[in-house]
């Protein structure tokens, strides 16, 4: 993991992915034409009529790296992404190229996982570039259909730090609400925004720090309290929630339980054991998506050695199916929160801010992946808690 002092000098990288025809290239062209004062190197790994072959190009030559008319640099990945990034780094260090950030545009069918892993695998790249965020563009008109047909599209949503929904004007409010609900079930930690590419605030797309280990782990409240009419069966409480402790005794802290029920969507069901309150279980939406998410929460401390052993094993077994996972951990014997995150098999952790004296110490983790066995994860994590 990089020390914070070195982050400022690193070149931030945004991975731009999304459904075919959703408007990725329109967005990219707009960033390139409007981002005055910022020099951006674009790495494209797709060919075809939609690539940047319009009036932005100065020359149409065979060279892999070409200068754009607005001073940006454009590279087409004919070879390996790692080689291209190292080539850009070498030429920037030699003063041949001048750019401040990189945007990688992936093909409409690409899984962003291997692209993200590149920034953790190669030391030269990891020391020079800072993976900032995955931004995924979803087409409101065809989004449901694409998610039904293509698991790669689900992966693009699962990997995202920010989801932009285009063409909202072509669907009804109800259709948009259904799509949004489905996106939240696949990925409750990405902010979702309907965009008109002529008016998007570009500041929201760069410097998101989605891969930074910061202390914020936002999970969409709708994911924690999705109101399904058939969701009032208490009998299988401990399976449907990220975590539902049964041995609270009388020390349950209602501060974690949002008892102002007028704001029901903010209600924290995963840690709430109030028998008077209806739990809304995470029944999957009608669409049986391969990619989904779950949250684990606990007010008990983890035993550091047991947790490390369990997570190490889980990542070895389920790594290919784990897309993104992130957490703020309460660890026994450590007076500060531990921050952890991972992509597939690559996991990292570092200490975060100290716990304040008046602060309720707790763990919150979110796992996004393909057909993850929630019960195995939940029971395993519970066994890592101190008694």
TrEMBL record:
<keyword id="KW-0547">Nucleotide-binding</keyword>
<dbReference type="GO" id="GO:0000166">
    <property type="term" value="F:nucleotide binding"/>
</dbReference>
<dbReference type="InterPro" id="IPR036627">
    <property type="entry name" value="CobW-likC_sf"/>
</dbReference>
<dbReference type="Pfam" id="PF07683">
    <property type="entry name" value="CobW_C"/>
</dbReference>
<feature type="region of interest" description="Disordered">
    <location>
        <begin position="258"/>
        <end position="285"/>
    </location>
</feature>
<keyword id="KW-0378">Hydrolase</keyword>
<dbReference type="InterPro" id="IPR027417">
    <property type="entry name" value="P-loop_NTPase"/>
</dbReference>
<feature type="domain" description="CobW C-terminal">
    <location>
        <begin position="291"/>
        <end position="385"/>
    </location>
</feature>
<comment type="similarity">
    <text>Belongs to the SIMIBI class G3E GTPase family. ZNG1 subfamily.</text>
</comment>
<dbReference type="InterPro" id="IPR011629">
    <property type="entry name" value="CobW-like_C"/>
</dbReference>
<dbReference type="Pfam" id="PF02492">
    <property type="entry name" value="cobW"/>
</dbReference>
<protein>
    <submittedName>
        <fullName>GTP-binding protein</fullName>
    </submittedName>
</protein>
<dbReference type="GO" id="GO:0005737">
    <property type="term" value="C:cytoplasm"/>
</dbReference>
<dbReference type="InterPro" id="IPR051316">
    <property type="entry name" value="Zinc-reg_GTPase_activator"/>
</dbReference>
<feature type="compositionally biased region" description="Basic and acidic residues">
    <location>
        <begin position="258"/>
        <end position="271"/>
    </location>
</feature>
<keyword id="KW-0143">Chaperone</keyword>
<dbReference type="InterPro" id="IPR003495">
    <property type="entry name" value="CobW/HypB/UreG_nucleotide-bd"/>
</dbReference>
<dbReference type="GO" id="GO:0016787">
    <property type="term" value="F:hydrolase activity"/>
</dbReference>
<comment type="function">
    <text>Zinc chaperone that directly transfers zinc cofactor to target proteins, thereby activating them. Zinc is transferred from the CXCC motif in the GTPase domain to the zinc binding site in target proteins in a process requiring GTP hydrolysis.</text>
</comment>
